[in-house]
Specification:
This protein is an alpha/beta fold. Helices cover 38% and strands 13% of the residues. The strands form two sheets. It has a six-stranded mixed β-sheet with strand order 1-3-2-6-8-7. Strands 4-5 form a two-stranded antiparallel ribbon. The protein is globular. The protein binds uracil. Pfam families: UDG (PF03167). One of its GO terms (molecular function) is 4 iron, 4 sulfur cluster binding. It comes from Streptomyces capitiformicae.
Length: 212
């Protein structure tokens, strides 16, 4: 089965994990991607934001949320009074998955990861959370939400609420709250962008309210 587990270092902090993740071959996505895109941000972050997977720009630059979705996310986060420099951003899946247009064009079209690819990558995400010990984790969209909360989780039903982590996911005393919301890319694609954006901001406000 696909599994990043064997590639995780048995000790060390975020830097050691980032270095090890660069060589991850826990699923086939490493083959076509440019590089692993590990999480980025303050080691002291009280807030962690989790996306789906790196996009085209992130794959090229090696950092999460540096493209259009990232700019929108940054604006929404700052709007609820959080300095982006105090947060940590990462993805459920750490390699870019894409297809080419039929006929063999050069454009790279984002493709949703399979459940088994999300499951394979989960040890990296859980390690990030274990090392950061944030107060609140915001899961952006269905992929991140299911990665953390389980496959039956529905963002449309349970977004914008302070939720506990599922029991046993993180083996530690202090458990973060989880807030689910839509993905910033979904805001960019929405027919009514303004109301989709307002919904994202409202959910982020719930997350912000739980920060000390
Ligand atoms: N979308 C994501 O889910 N993550 C990124 O890093 C960029 C876009």
């Amino acid at each position: 089965a696909y599994d990043a587990g064997p590639y995780l270092p048995s000790r060390g902090g975020l830097a050691a994990h980032r270095r090890a993740a660069a060589d991850c071959q826990g699923c086939p996505l490493f083959e076509d991607a440019t590089q692993t895109v590990f999480g980025k941000g303050a080691e002291s972050a009280r807030l962690v934001l989790v996306g789906e997977q790196p996009g085209d720009q992130e794959d090229r630059q090696g950092e999460p949320f540096v493209g259009p979705a990232g700019r929108l996310l940054g604006r929404a986060v700052e709007e609820v009074g959080i300095d982006m420099d105090t947060a940590y951003v990462t993805n459920a899946v750490k390699h870019f998955k894409f297809t080419r247009p039929p006929g063999g064009g050069k454009r790279r079209i984002h493709k949703a990861p399979e459940l088994r690819e999300v499951a394979a990558c989960r040890p990296w995400l859980l390690a990030e959370l274990r090392l950061l010990r944030p107060e609140v984790v915001v899961v952006l969209g269905a992929t991140a939400a299911k990665a953390l909360m389980g496959s039956s989780f529905r963002v449309t039903k349970d977004r914008g609420a302070l939720l506990p982590m599922p029991p046993g996911a993180l083996d530690q005393d202090d458990q973060p709250y989880v807030v689910a919301t839509i993905h910033p890319s979904a805001v960019l694609r929405a027919d009514d962008r303004d109301s989709a954006y307002a919904g994202l901001v409202a959910d982020l406000r719930v997350a912000a309210s739980a920060l000390d």
